[in-house]
Structures are given as C-alpha cells and as structure tokens.
Input
Amino acid sequence: MSLWVQLTLKDLADPDSEGRAGLVNLERALWMEPYDADGTGSVLHFGAEESVMVSESLEEIVELLDAAEGIDEDYEEEEEEE
Output
C-alpha cells in the first residue's frame, strides 16, 4: 500500500514561485530535510537526481503521516469487527 499525501509543490529553481497542490508518495522518499533554517518548506529526496520542494515543514509532514496512520488503524479495526 502506498502512502500518498497532498502537499503544496514548489519550484526548486525558484522558491518564491507560486505553489500548486500535488500528491506525493511519501513511502518512496529516501530522506527529507528542511529547505532553510527557518523551517519554511521541506525538500523530499527520492534518489540522487529526483527531489521535490514542498511548502510544508517537516513537522507538518509528520502530522500528516500520523493522521494517515490513524486512518489506517481505524480502517483495520473496522475490518476486524466485521
């Protein structure tokens, strides 16, 4: 099962560019790091030459992951009850 999360994608070449919503498969990410020291945005790396910048901070991404795991647990519990 893949974990797709909607994040706000930014242009790595132009960080001041307008963001756009996009789905990102976080299970494919090899590592994530903050874009800058202020924590405004993150860079997700999927390999040596594949990365994407998002406007969400690492903390916001972790919250989204925690929420997604909670949804999965609720779904599994419902299946077990049936």
Notes: The radius of gyration is 15 Å. The chain is about 30% helix and 35% strand. The helical segments are 58-81. The mean pLDDT is 81.
